Amino acid sequence: MKKNKKTEPMLPLELQTFSFIEALDDGYVHDCRIVSEDLPAGKTHFDRVLFENVRFLDGEWGRSEFADAVFINCDLSNADLSGAVFHRVKFENCRMLGTDFTESTIRYTRFEECRIDYAVFGFSHISDVSFERSILRQADFYEVDMKSAQFLASDLNEANFTGTSLKGVDFSSSRFEELQVTPELLLGCKVSTDQALLFARKLGLIITE
Q: Which of 47, 53, 55, 203 has a beta carbon 3.0–4.6 Å from 30's, enabling a disulfide?
């Protein structure tokens, strides 16, 4: 995914720091910086917000929306973000172990150096998204509508892509010993030579030297 003005979060040059409670106005938080807080779960619309060292507490975040948002060193582990919307968002060095993104919509979003093990993305819509230098062991992408997705230099071991079309998806620089896929949905997926051999074996091919 190219990094340009259309895909990068559009934040004001200067953001005033507020506590979550100070910034919250009838379920809406915008144009601010939130630092070193534990945020209580609840449906919230975030617009042009920078989160630093913030922990999203376990619980239902309902169908929250995040537009032009940046997360730095945040912890969203086990948060229920099912049905949430992410548009022009960047996650940097964040923890999302076991986070539930089921039926979410994720567009123009980058995950950089994040821990996303066991996260669930089933039945979500993912477009123009990149996972860069991240760990996604046993992450679940079951029956995802996925377009223009890249997994760059990431650990995907035992991730599940069953029922997901991988056309246009780039796995070539990532690593895994096992990956669950639907063989007939591999067409158009970009892989390395070693990965191609692994998938060939899944198709039942007998490979000789």
A: 47
Q: Could you report the per-residue pLDDT of 110-131, keeping only the tens digit for each?
A: 999 999 999 999 999 999 999 9
Selection from 174, 162, 172, 169 nearest residue 202 by Cα: 162
Structure tokens, 7: 């895909």
Burial of 111 (0-12, 13-18, 19+ CB in 10 A): buried
What residue has token string 């996972």?
131
Which residue reads 């892989």 in tokens?
Answer: 191
Q: Say which amino acid occupies 95.
A: R
Torsions phi, psi of 94, nearest 5?
-110, 155
Question: DSSP letter at 21?
Answer: H
Rounded Cα–Cα distance for residues 203 and 127 (Å): 27
Of 189, 188, 127, whose CA–CA distance to 156 is shortest?
189
Identify the CA nearest to 92 among candidates 53, 140, 35, 125. Answer: 53
Given a cut of 80, is residue 206 above it in pLDDT?
no
